[in-house]
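ok so I'm stuck.
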Amino acid sequence: MAAGAEGRTGGQLLADALVANGATHVFAVPGESYLDLLDGLYNQRNRIELITCRFEAGAIHMAEAHGKLTGRPGVAVVTRGPGACHAAIGVHVAQQDSTPLVLLVGQIPMNETDRETFQEVDYRRFFSPIAKWVTQIDEAARIPELMAHAFDVAVSGRPGPVVVALSEEMQKHVAAVPDIGPQAVLPAHPAPLAIPKLMEMLAKAERPLAILGGSRWTEEARAAIRDFLVGNDIPVAVAFRRQSLFDGTSPHYAGDLGVGADAGLVQKAREADLLLAIGTRMGEPVSQGYTLFDLAGRQPIVQVHPDQAEIGRVHRVALGITADVNAFALALRDERVASPRWGQWRQAVRAAREAQAKAPHYEGPLNLAVALQELEKAVPADAIFTTDAGNFATWPTRFMHVGAEQEFLGPTNGAMGYAVPAAIGAAITYPGRCVIVFVGDGGALMTGQELATAFHHGVAPIVMVFNNNMYGTIRMYQERAYPGRVSGTALTNPDFARFIESFGGHGEVVTRTEELVPAFHRARASGKPAIIEVRTNPEQVTNRATIAQLRAQAVKPA
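replied:
not stuck anymore, here's the structure
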C-alpha cells in the first residue's frame, strides 16, 4: 500500500518500508520480539525473499555480503538481547569495510524499559561506537520516516551500518501513513580545481603508485578508473581485501597492500614519489601498521574519499579530494599525462609482483601455491570468492589473481567466521554464479552450521577448508614471541567431508597438489553445497616461514 489511506499495523508498515526502500532480501533469525514484522513480511513474500538463518552472526554476514555486492543496504533482522549481541560482529565488519547495512532489532515492551527486563539492552549505547546511526521506533506513524532515513544514512558519504530497534508493542499499533521511498541525491563531484591539480602533480611525478579501496564502486566506475590508470601507465595496488577493484591479471596490477602484503610491493610503495589513494582510508593494514608512509606528508599523497573527515585523518596529504568514488572515476576517465616518464618504474613494480607470485618449493605432497594457481585456471570467469581471516588467507592473495569479472569479499576488520555465511549471501544474491569460499579450520567451525541455510534456500557454495589443526595466525605470533610454548592454539577437528555429507552435500579431501582441481570439478558438478577439506602441512604455518624457522628467528628473552 503506497498511499496509506487505510491503517496498517507497525509490522506491516515495516515490511512495506523495506519494499519502498528497495530491499529484495532479508536475512533473519526469527524471534518473538518481531512476530508482527514477520507477519508483515508474509504479505510481501512475493517482493522480499526472507532468508531463514541459523545464527545471528551468520545472518548479518550474509546481509553484509549482499550490501557489498549490490551497493544497496543489506538487511538483517534479529531478536533482542542475545540476538543483537550475536549480530554486533557484523555491524563492526560493515563499519570497517564501509558496507551499507541496516540491522533491525526487536526490542522489549516500552513499559518495561530500565528494569533490566528479559533480554533488555540499550541499543543506542551498545551500538553507537560501531554504527553510523542508531535509533528506536516507538510510534508506528514514524516508521516510514525513520526507515527511509536509515537507508539514506547507510549509503551516504562513507557507507556503513545503521541499527534500528523496534519496540515490541509498536509493531501491533495501527497507523494510516504513506510509505516513503529513497530520495534522489546527486553524488559529490570533485571540486573544479581538483582534477587539474591532480594531473599537474602526476605530470611532475616519476614513480606514481595508485591504491584503490573503498566500497560501492559501480561496474562503470571500475572500468573508468581502469581506463585512466592503464591509459597513464600507472601501477595499481589494491587496499586490504579490495581485489575486486582491479583486474589482477593486468600487467598494471601491483598486488594488495594489506596483511601479508608482498615485500616487493611494500618496498615499491616506500619508493613511490606520488601516491594516488582513491577510495581507501589508508588505515592500519594498508599502511603496514602506520609505518609505510610518513605521517607528516613528506611523501606526496592525493587522497580521494567521500567523507572529508577521513582525508588526512592519520597521514597528512598533499591534496585531498572529497568526492563520491564513482563520480570521481567518471570525471577522471579521459585525463592523460602528455608524456609519462615512468614506464620502467611500472615494469619494475609489476616484476616485483610476479616474483612474489612464483610458487616456491614446499616440503610434502601438497604444494598449496601450485594447487591454487592451477585452481585459478579452472574457476569461472565470473566467480565470486569469499575469504575468512587467518594465515591461510594470504595463500590465495599471494598466488592467485582475481579477474576483471570476478568478485572478492573479505572482512577488512579480520572477523573469523565471515566467509561461509558471506558466500551463502553472495550465492543467494547471484544464484547463477559460482561461489568459492576460502576458510581455515578455525573459522569453518565458527559459522559452518550456516551451510544448513544454503541447503534450505537451494544454493551451492563450494567451501575450501584449509585444515592445519590450529589457530594458525595466533600460533605464528606465539612462536615468534614464545617459541615452543604452544598454549591454546591447537585444535581438534571433525572430518569436514563427512560433516557436509551429513547435510546431504558433497565432500572431498585433498592431501596432494594434483588433487585440488579434480576435487573442485567434482564438487561443482555435484550441484550441491560442497566442502573440499585441504589438509595442509601444520609445520608450514605461513607461506613464507615454517614453525622451525620462526622459532629460530624468535628473540629470546633476556
